[in-house]
Amino acid sequence: MCGITGILNLDSEPVKQDLLTKMTRSLSHRGPDDEGIYIAGRVGLGHRRLSIIDLSSQGHQPMSNEDGGVWITHNGEIYNHHSLRKRLQENGHQYKSQTDTETIIHLYEEEGIECLQYLDGEFAFAIWDSKKNILFAARDRLGVKPFYYRICDKNFIFASEIKAILLHPEARKEVDLQALLYYLSFSVSPAPLTMFRDIFKLEAGHYLLINEKGRLLKKQYWDAIPKEKIDCSESEAMGGIRYKLKESIQERLMSDVPFGVFLSGGIDSSANVAFMAGMLNEPVETFNVAIDGFYAYDESYFAELVSGHFHTQHHSIRIKFEDFYAFFKELPYYTDEPLCDYACIPNFYLAKLSRENKTPVIQIGEGNDELFCGYRSYSAILNLIKYFSCLPRVIKKSAFNLLKSVQGKNLHYAIGQAVKGGDVFLGGSYLFTEQEKESMFKESFKITDFDSSLSYVAGVYAKLLNRFPQAGTLDKMIYLDLKVRLPELLLMRADKMTMANSVEARLPYLDYQFVEYALSLPSKFKYQHNRTKYIFKKSLKGILPQEVLSQAKKGFAGNPVNIFNQRFQDYVLETYEHTKPILSQWFDPDKIKDRLIFNSPGINSREGMKIWSIFSLMLWLERFFK
């Protein structure tokens, strides 16, 4: 993986080399091994390289085709580049390197924008075609790699991280209020919005073109919608899962440098280790992080069990509350936007451990819980639909009022939605309701002037149902999380925290062919007999130790409630005082302060995440706007 950036001047003015160099060097943590700049009049491409494939100077980027008419800056890996290369060479294309990047160039020469249909990998790239006078950029199907951009008065600017775009003199720093409202509900700003006004992120599975007249065309080339549900037996589904996962992991062993696995001890990372161990002649390098005091969420026992079972070379680290403090101020710098995911911090230290042990390529397990109903929130919604939503409205309303009187503010929003007949699932990281958000803002701030989180979710569901009208409740939940929470929260956490340490993360569960197969499986295989990930776990019997398969899901590093002590309270309120003048532009500061006061013994996970979301927002405001 690498860092890419670039400028296309829409008025034909030449790109300034010192500016592009500065932007490129702001991404040095993404690529410590090499730096490249290409400028041709009004276009400039920048690249920071983390050398993974073809470590020689022939892998230098930006890279061109044979006659220099097409240039590319590319971040990611193309796992089927060897098979594509063979066909392209037979068609007369001349290679000068062993890189996958060069295959993209030649494939683009052959197929144009349709080259995306042939690429299997995790990528974000920009191609300058001087013959057609167009800039062509794309983001991979699931959104593993980020691509940010801004169109100013005279320039189209893009980069792997927002901080590079902010160095351009035309890029003003302003908060996007619609994105802010979405953030409070979804824990992240959904693409194409970012928390910076007029800076956008290209959606997963999309490409864009800037033509010779400076007009932007953006189009989707892939979506996570099943073509149909396949009719198969459980044994056939198990065989398909094992076959496609093994293929995906095998492809992701492509590397000219050492690689390993982030081994949490959960089922997904353990399956990574199991299959990889059968493919290598040497022990798998595995890495685990645990947090002192978080014993309810500590999976290190299972990580060590899996390590011993498959004879891995295991590395582990335990971090303390002081390690959290040490990283609070740096967190928003690396994430660029507030990401309401406390697990960013242990992920950072895990990637640091990997880098310190000279293992710059890591396979991780993100994505599988979304595909196979691995979250407790999914099963809770399915049970709610099954046992509650079918009741007569008068009974539902009475039950709702009774539960409300017992649970008070901790009552989950889903029950209220079920009473009203609305969408019950609003996202795996849904936090503040519209009513809660409205109570936090100043009276002069009209939240009704903006789109609500409910209308956003309704639009996502409508798109799915328009193309796949037979979609059930689980299909809808999976699709929503594949559009919002996975690409813009979990995958950005993975990308930003690994790249902060110059480590490349690979995600075998998000191989698009594995995803398409998983989406096509009947929902009854995924949640059965009150068991999540039913068919996936069953497919691993005899491969993973039964003790690992039988463990209850804990979630990586748990949730932030465990660090909610008096010291953290003081830190949160100190941050609040620093950012109060900025918050007061939109929020009622007293209401925000009330939200930040917590009683550690009585707080639950969801209320804790609400506090963490405001805390993350304040850290971001302090870093970029103070």
Describe this structure in words.
- This protein is of the alpha+beta class and 626 residues long.
- 43% of the residues lie in helices and 15% in strands.
- The chain has 26 helices and 17 strands.
- The strands form 3 sheets. A 6-stranded antiparallel beta sheet has the order 2-3-1-9-8-10.
- The longest helix has 21 residues.
- The two termini are 32 Å apart.
- About 1% of the residues have low confidence.
Write the layout of secondary structure elements.
Layout (H helix, E strand, L loop, with lengths): L1 E8 L7 H9 L8 E7 L2 E7 L13 E2 L5 E9 L2 H10 L9 H12 L9 E9 L4 E6 L8 E4 L3 E5 L2 H4 L11 H10 L13 E2 L4 E5 L5 E5 L13 H18 L7 E4 L4 H11 L7 E7 L8 H11 L2 E7 L1 H8 L2 H5 L8 H13 L4 E3 L4 H4 L4 H12 L5 H15 L5 H8 L13 H7 L12 H15 L5 H11 L1 H15 L4 E3 L5 H9 L2 H4 L7 H6 L6 H5 L15 H18 L5 H8 L8 H21 L1
Parallel strand pairs: 13-14, 13-16, 14-15, 16-17
Antiparallel strand pairs: 1-3, 1-9, 2-3, 4-5, 5-6, 6-7, 7-11, 8-9, 8-10, 11-12
